[in-house]
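Job type: complex structure
Entries:
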Amino acid sequence: MSLRHGRSYLAIPGPSVMPDEVLQAMHRPSPNIYEGDLIELTESIFPDLLHVARCTGKVATYIGNGHAAWEAALSNIANPGDRILLLATGNFGHGWADLAENLGIEVDRLDFGKRSPIDPAQVSDALAKRKDYKAVMTVHVDTATSAKSDISAVRQAMDAAGCDALLLSDCIASLGCDDFRFDDWGVDVMVSACQKGLMTPPGMSFVFFNEKAAQARKTVNRVSTYWDWVPRTDPEFYYQYFCGTAPTNHLYGLRAALDMIKSEGLDHVFERHEVLARAIWAAVDTWAMKGPLQLNIQNPAHRSHAVTGLRIGAPFGTQLREWTEHQAGLTLGIGLGMAAPNDPEWHGFFRMGHMGHVNAQMVLGMLATVDAGLKATGVPHGDGAVSAATQLIASATTAQPLDGQVQTCCG
Ligand SMILES: *Cc1c(COP(=O)(O)O)cnc(C)c1O
């Protein structure tokens, strides 16, 4: 017997759920890439991307995934032999740093472990020893651990230490989900991609940069033609935006996704993610009252609103994921980087993705499905998790009068 036949739900932290509006916008014949609609549509996208990032600088666009943006960002600001400080809060910072080392960049790594955000005090200590870094590299939300760091506090620690390095931030998991403020927080270069909070199939990525980073670009001896962000942000000809053929149908999809964000309102998008994340935490806190399941990040202030990392103990994580996928049509995320893939402990983790096109009924369905999965696979757990989540959602939606309208009785 299987109960999975119906619309499935991919609740992994990217690619996220793709809205029908985005898929339908992409479903069209190839447009003319020399003149017409596509040119105008492309140029309409940049200001909206900058708005989502709260950035008054520029954004370069690449046909590639997040790794492409990682390499593009570093290629424009660092020479081989330059030194960078990585502040790691999970797998992804190390991935970016490995890539930096392959470009010949020296990397010092300050690792905050798998259950904590960046600690600005430790950043201050590290910068007291050495501050001649070309850049300090951060990940706003590490998708493996679901730790969210205070990027503004990193800049403050750098300022206090007299370190004027570039501040780099990876917002691939957080852009369009968790509030991020490029200008206000003193970020110089930010990388993101389209397949998470921006709700578009994988294939486009972005490097946001300010004037300070544009100046740093001039100190780089050789930037490859392909990664160079200068023609991509200041093209003489349309093809230079992408150093070749535009990602035609992706652009229509991304336009539709940005329109959805615009019509909901960015603050409301963040608020929706926050309430849904709190509903998930309320459920997990209830399950955690009995048995092994617990949130990876203890302090709510340090948790992402887009992805939730969970610890359940081996072999329950894998058993639960297999049950939800094969019995209920719900795909949960694997525990990335929490243990080596050949270590039995690897089976003791999973993640919930709740980024982008996700609403209350989807999250409540996911939580109820996990609740059923815990029962079916025999994992001890506290009772009433779904009810805790529904209670949270009910009170979040009734806390304020709707649009200030007072309903008067006609009695
Ligand atoms: C998904 C993700 C990446 C990698 O993006 P790809 O598109 O898979 O290359 C990097 N950093 C973070 C924080 C991510 O969430």
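Summary: Confidence is low (pLDDT under 50) at residues 404-411. The first strand starts at residue 9 and ends at 11.
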